[in-house]
Amino acid sequence: MHNERTFQYDGENAARSRGELEDDTVIITKMQEVRVGVIGLGNVGMGTLAVLAENAEQITQKLGFPLRVSTVCSRSVESKKLPEALGPVRKTSDWREVVSHPEVDVVAELVGGTSVASEIISGAITHKKSVVTANKELMATCGSEIWDRAIRAGINLAMEASVAGGIPIHAVLREGISGDRVVALYGILNGTSNYILTEMEERGATLDEVLTEAQRLGYAESDPSADIDGLDARSKLAILAALAFGEKITPADIYVEGIRRISPMDFRYAHQLGHTIRLLCGARQTPDGLILSVRPALIGLKTIISGVKGAYNAVWVKGRFGEDTFYYGRGAGPLPTGVAVASDLMRVAREIRYGHPERVSPFAHERLGEYKPLLVTREKCPYYLRFRVEDRPGILATLAGILAEQHISLEAVLQLPNETKHDLPFVITLEPSYEHAVREAVEKMSNLEFLREPPLALPMEPPL
Ligand SMILES: NC(=O)c1ccc[n+]([C@@H]2O[C@H](COP(=O)([O-])OP(=O)(O)OC[C@H]3O[C@@H](n4cnc5c(N)ncnc54)[C@H](OP(=O)(O)O)[C@@H]3O)[C@@H](O)[C@H]2O)c1
User: Fold this and answer.
1) First-residue to last-residue Cα distance in the chain
2) How far is 133 from 166, CA to CA, in rounded Å?
């Protein structure tokens, strides 16, 4: 009589060469494939299909079983050209068919937004199917609740693609450095605004000029608000801060200010001061709680994060024990994001085949007082104040007087050569000051009749 063994992992020959199988052992089953239903065939959906099709062989070898796309869905599914290497795939325009179909083990929600996407994820959870999503908007606002439901249903939820597409930052925070205690996290998390700022910096072009060009090339949406007003970056920071600090953080906890007021002149002044300007996402632990912000900031030219240019993203994390780590890569795009989705699908598929580990939500598993979000007005750091004035005597004395009333000390005054006296720019840098005091001073200055526009106040981040 033969031995009967189920071959599960790295192949019959490998097992025989390790002496794990008797010569007469008969292999009776190969590990079953895991079947994926993809909902949403836009940039990310099609990128994911391309990765799964072109890299199918490697993915099978890494998993020990195939990951097969069994069903795809989008409103205009019939017009989509799928990669041939996927083989036969069921097509539907009704997402309900995907989440309920018995031949779908994992659902990839790649639709976006908060309405249909939320129904899709709920439907998948109801049918006890694990979910992979790229949806930052939904996970930033309701991630904690969705996770709780997923845990109760005993299924998994993976969302690597929701922040910084090509950078595996979720895996880093949940696994790679999970033994550390994060004290600060900074990121450049919106590729479009970073592209606009670096083009302004390098070419001296205005924001409007670069934005129009970016829209023509398809790098920026026709409504650019989510990118340049910092809202997209804010959703991403909400997710990362929740993962890093184990706290329930929503976008409303985060101070946000976009890049609309930044001009090429600000880069000239920033360079003189040894800095550049980036839309910086920050989550920093203080003795009283967390300070969270998305805002343009001056960052030192010698810091690693100042070298993040164009549409790239980066995340810098400081741990109490492991100190600094830095992660860099493409923040978006069909293929980098497709890799993140495919890798999440592999992680979930492994769990389905090899068993479900006990799960803890990455959001707010325990509310720790020390991480309570604080108002950004409690921030204390040096500031850059940029003015445009109608030149006349006594301007500096007036401004210095207002700053002194708020107990703010001036550090330096900087004026680059300028031809016109009617619109004269100059900059005052401040010693470390509280944000609330700086805001009050700026408010008082805004009514001065020699100002061409309200002063622009930007924090100067300490060296990262
Ligand atoms: N683009 C990126 O680089 C990137 C990076 C990271 C994360 N993300 C996130 O990934 C998600 C998808 O983004 P995307 O850029 O791929 O969006 P997209 O190009 O607009 O694609 C959305 C897809 O969803 C489909 N869809 C919309 N409503 C549907 C419904 N009711 N039923 C079925 N299908 C529906 C659309 O169908 P039709 O094609 O038929 O209209 C389209 O195929 C978003 O959450 C986004 O934030 C995107």
Assistant:
1) 68
2) 14
How many angstroms separate the alpha carbon of residue 227 from the centre of ligand 1? 17
Task: Please tell me the predicted confidence (pLDDT) of residue 248.
Answer: 79
Closest CA to 70 of 101, 32, 111, 48: 101
Closest CA to 382 of 285, 274, 316, 462: 462
Mutate to test the pocket of ligand 1, among 109, 110, 139, 194 (most ligand atoms within 8 A of CB): 110
DSSP per-residue letters across 232-258: HHHHHHHHHHHHHHTS---GGGSEE--
Query: How many CB atoms are located within 10 Å of the residue 321 CB?
Result: 9
Question: Which of the four pLDDT bands, split at 50, 70 and 90, describes residue 20?
Answer: low
Residues 121, 150: Cα–Cα separation, whole Å: 9
pLDDT of 372 reads 78
Q: What is the mean pLDDT of residues 47-58?
A: 98
Q: Residue for token digits 């439907």?
A: 123
Distance CA 220, CA 447 (A): 35
Taking the C-alpha atoms of residue 254 and residue 256, their distance in angstroms, rounded to an integer, is 6
Q: Is 199 exposed, middle or buried (0-12, 13-18, 19+ CB in 10 A)?
A: buried
The yes-or-no verdict on residue 368 having pLDDT over 90 is: no
Q: Write out residues with Cβ below 6 Å of ligand 1.
A: 39-45, 73-76, 95, 110-112, 116, 134-136, 161, 165, 332-333, 337
Pairing of strands 182-188, 410-414: unpaired
Check if the beta carbon of residue 22 is closer than 8 Å to that of residue 54.
Answer: no
10: tokens are 């790295």
| Exposed/middle/buried for residue 211 (C-beta within 10 Å: 0-12, 13-18, 19+) | buried
Name the active-site residue from 129, 136, 236, 248. Answer: 236
Q: How far is 24 from 30, CA to CA, in rounded Å?
A: 17
How far does residue 407's CA lie from ligand 1's centre (Å)?
A: 51
- pTM to 2 decimals? 0.90
The Cα 12–Cα 4 span in angstroms is 12
Q: Helices (DSSP H) in 355-428: which residue ranges?
A: 395-405
Active site residue 30: no
